[in-house]
Amino acid sequence: MSHSIVSSRIHEKQHVTVIGAGIVGVCCAINLVREGFHVTVIDKEGVAAGASSGNAGAISPGSCIPLSEPGGFKKVPKWLFHQDGPLVVQPTYALQVMPWLVRFLKAGTRKQFQHASTALHRLHSRTHKCYRPILEFANAMHLIRRSGALTAYETSGAFESSKSGWALRAAHGVKYDVLGRNEIQELVPALDGRIQHAVLQHDHGYVVDPYTLVTTLFEAAYRAGTNYLREKAVAIDSRDGEVCVRFESGESIRSNYVVVAAGASSAELLKSIGLKVPLERQRGYHLHLPDAQIQLPLPVSFSSGKFYATPMQTGIRLAGTVEFARKTAPPNYARADALARLASRWLPGLKTEGASRWMGNRPCLPDSLPVIGAAPQHPRILFAFGHGHNGMTSASTTSRIIADIAANRPPCIDISPYQIDRFL
């Protein structure tokens, strides 16, 4: 008897509510449907309405370098006083975000850095394996390409300073090749010939259209019986073996489990069960070039500018930058426009006319790790949020973990590094 038939008989009367219709929530919905659960997805903003549609599209199984590194405190003056860098703090938000930044810097001790690196590798290294059944279920294999990805270094100094990071990746078993100028030009002729150093990670890839991927997965879950409610969840409560989700409209829904996968909005929901997590909204920008006039065979990340150039179905997407700002602050699209100037420097002939601009919020925790697992005292409330810059990569493994927990199986990996009690 197949596993799917056994699962459907075990869970056919069990109902799971998933809060959030981004890549993480939708992958959770598919894996829960495959287990035989009845699923309802809730999202007031719509499917793929946030960072799940506007990201760089990177699928990075070798991504295991936390954002907070040893010695990071030296960069704080740049964040505060240089408003054109890859990471900035708007002055009007500096005092409010300072406690988060202090925790972020503390996460950069060598011990914490190594711990987070191991946990990131454990989560990300399984991304292709965990995506396969999801993509096959939705007939969406063509939406993720395992093309490899190139990291380009604009200077020899930048390349030299990166070597410790590559050594750490190698220690985790990540495979890569260091390329010289001729190999770079042969692989990506569009790159400026002055780039003499680059690293190729063969197992990386990209999503050809993030919005299409998320909506295609959701449509597959919907065809399989998933319900969708366009409501705003404002509170959750667990009692008598059920979980109740209350909506802004005054209505509510009860289910056997609830999965909180609401991205940057997740922290507000957790307050209703007495939990507080240091989840910060990091604003990211992209510039989408529909007629770039150059060809990229694979994604290229630029080390100094901290941005990606990804060849998508509808053009080349330039994405990156981190900005801390008030939730209500208007987008600073000058940061998106700056990506065009940076990219044009290293991609001669790049056409930036006709570009569209986007800004969205990434849900980031100070230790660079997401929150995955069950709520203390509330085992039927499951968490799947805080994936930061790695949501597309992390979603598949995270959703497998959530399905394992709901199905009362041991998770596919050790989830102790991701549990919420590290903040309590």
Helix content: 25-40%
Give the number of helices: 14
What structural class should be given to the helix and strand makeup?
A: alpha/beta
The geometry reads as globular
Could you tell me how far the N terminus lies from the C terminus, measured between alpha carbons in angstroms? 43 Å
Number of strands: 21
Largest sheet: 9 strands, mixed
Task: State mean pLDDT (0 to 100 scale).
Answer: 93
Task: Enumerate the spans where pLDDT stays under 50 for 5 or more consecutive residues.
Answer: 1-10
Rg, rounded, reads 21 Å
Strand fraction equals 25-35%
3D architecture notes:
This protein has 424 residues and is of the alpha/beta class. Helices cover 33% and strands 25% of the residues. The protein has helices spanning 3-11, 23-35, 51-54, 76-81, 94-106, 110-124, 127-137, 156-161, 163-171, 181-187, 210-223, 266-270, 334-346, 391-406, and strands at 15-19, 38-42, 58-59, 87-89, 144-145, 149-153, 177-179, 197-201, 205-207, 227-229, 233-239, 242-247, 252-255, 257-260, 280-289, 300-302, 307-312, 315-324, 356-364, 371-375, 378-385. The strands form 4 sheets. Strands 4, 6, 7, 8, 15, 16, 17, 18 and 19 form a 9-stranded mixed sheet that branches. It has a 6-stranded mixed sheet with strand order 10-2-1-14-21-20, covered by helices on one side. The termini are far apart.
